[in-house]
Every structure is written in C-alpha cells, then in structure tokens.
C-alpha cells in the first residue's frame, strides 16, 4: 500500500514543475510540510568563517577544511588537531554505498578538504607540509599535515572559501571567453592529473548524451538510487539534525518552484531519481565547457586526493572570478559500478571516447563551468567539533 503522506511520482513532478501553483502560504497544498527559509539556522553557522573568537591557526585551518566540496555533501572527514600538526582521516561510515563503490569520490572529497586546509593555514601564518597516506597499517589515515610558522600569505582563493558552493541552476549557453581554458589549466594542476576540456558543440553533445544515459542507468539501479536518496534532506528538521547531504535549496530549481517543493511531502526514491534525470536534461548540461579530470587507470588513493585538491582549487578560483561549477560524476559512478559487478563497460567506453589522447585513463572527476542564471545556495555543514577525532 502506498504511504498516504507521499505524493505519487507523477503528482510530485507535476507540482514541482507548476510554478503557477505556488501559494507561499500553503493554501490548497494539504499542509504536507512547513516552509523554511534558505541558509538559516545552526546547520549553516560554519559558513560564518572565520569563526568568531578563534585565533589558533590549526583550528582556523580545520574550520576552513569543513567548507570544502564533498560527494553528496557527505563531509567524510575526521581531524586530529594538535599544536603544529593536523592529521586527516576518513570517516568511513560517511560514504555513498554503491554510488561510490570504490570510494573514489570519498577520497576526492578528502582532497578538497586538504586544499582548503593548506590555503587557510598559509593565510593564518602557517606553512603546510603534507604527507599522504603516512601509515601503511591504517588506510583511514589519509594525510599528516605539519604546520610551521611562516609569514601570512593572502590569497583570493582563501577569500572565496565561504562563498564557494555548487550551483546546479541553468548556466549561460555560449562559447567560453578567450583565455578561460588556459586559465583553468593553469590553476587545475597536480602531478599525474590530466585535464580534458570539452567546449566544442560535438564534444559537449557527446558528454551530455552519455551523462544522461548514465543518470538513467543509476536511477534504474535500485541500490544505487536508494543509496543516493538516503543522503537527501527534505525538511528543516532533517537539515538541522544531520547538517549534511543535498537539500532542495541546492537543487538548482528556480526560486518559486523550490519554495513550492518545500511545502510538499518528501518524494519516494524513484520519483526523486526521475526528477534528477529531468533536471539534468533541463538545466545541468549547460555552460561554457565540461571538464574531465583523469589519472592513469592504475593510480590509487594518492591520485584521488590530488584530483580533489585540483578540483577544490579550481572551484575557488571560479568563485573568485564570478563563475560557477557543478560536479557531473554520473559517468564515473556508473563506470565504477560496472567494474564492480562485471557488467558491460558502457560508461567506461563513453568516457574513453571523451578522453581522446587519455582514453586509457580512469575518469576521477567530471564537472561543468559557466555563468549561472541564478545565484546558488550553500549546503548545510556539520560543525567542526563533530569532525574532531578524540
């Protein structure tokens, strides 16, 4: 029997798409949920950076790290903080299950946090020396970061940290401005990380078609779809309780439709998956270019951490320059799933076609870059003390 508190798939999709039905007072909507404002409450307090009253460089660096990008906003990090050193660990339970079966994206997210940490340390008078995977007997210990006193180094990237967020709205469709590709290549660099720039009409079309097919395959895979949906936070109470995961405010929906959706009951996983397909098709394949960061197929965790650092640095640079970015990792997620289950390499073949000279690589991170039609909204953050290892 269908849960009466859950709208049917067709009704939910129709309601969210019907901006003309928006009645902000909730009249006629059955009172499914209460409207809540965007970016409000304790779940967004960490974005008030630097934290008031904090002067310890190590803690300021860690407080910046938790503002980094992570897969599905899982925030999979733990920190051991002491004078002159921060150790970064995997919070193993904060993973996407079959959506990230090889834990590739988890380690990329840790690399993102590491980049923020290093930049913030420099701003606050500490030079960072990073040792990756310092303990062969503990795979959860991903980095030891020694901090030594140094002259403060101001950075536009540091200044962008509290403004950086994923923007899933429609982007302007046009050719990229002259010099954009070279600027991205200059900032998005790490040893062993290859960057493929897709800005021609044919290459963008191939990327769009392959990404839509991969999104459909994920939604049709009940376990992947369920593991993805498990992190979604629909109500103000869920956001305040968990302070993680994707939210309605971060979907890229136009304001009127987003506000309506807050009044509706949470959709079931299949309905949410179908909305993901439609929003990908309608809005999330626009922009100046698609970018693929790849590494040799045999590369391991160190390469994934490096990809994360390159991605975070690029997103901070984009933010500082009035541009937006959004991960579009469906092809890589599906390729990992095919590898784990021994399925035909449909996604892997599509990736190889996109990568050209690097066709033998493993795609680690895929994203779009452009100028958004609407400002995006930030996602919730768990407070630093929830991520400090005792």
- Average residue pLDDT: 92
CATH topology of the domain at 42-163 and 378-387: NADH Oxidase
Describe the main β-sheet briefly: 4 strands, antiparallel
Overall spatial form:
globular
Strand order, largest beta sheet: 1-2-4-3
SSE string, helices as H and strands as E: HHEEHEEHHEHHHHHEHEHHE
Q: Indicate the CATH class of the domain at 42-163 and 378-387.
A: Alpha Beta
Which class of secondary structure composition applies to the elements? alpha+beta
Contiguous low-pLDDT stretches (5 residues minimum) are 1-15, 18-31
Q: What is the architecture of the domain at 42-163 and 378-387 at the second tier of CATH?
A: 3-Layer(aba) Sandwich
Write out the CATH superfamily name of the domain at 42-163 and 378-387: NADH Oxidase
- Count of individual helical segments: 13
Task: Report the strand count.
Answer: 8
Helix content: 25-40%
CA-based gyration radius = 20 Å
- Termini, distance in Å? 46 Å
Fraction of residues in β-strands? 5-15%
Features of the shown structure:
390 residues; alpha+beta; NADH Oxidase; four-stranded antiparallel beta sheet; 13 helices; 14% strand; globular; disordered N terminus
Explain the overall architecture.
It is globular, with a radius of gyration of 20 Å. Helix content is 38%, strand content 14%. The chain is α+β, with helices and mostly antiparallel strands and 390 residues long. The model is unreliable at 1-15 and 18-31 (pLDDT under 50). It has a domain at 42-163 and 378-387: NADH Oxidase. It has 13 helices and 8 strands. Helix 2 runs antiparallel to helix 3, helix 6 (201-220) packs across helix 12 and helix 12 crosses helix 13.
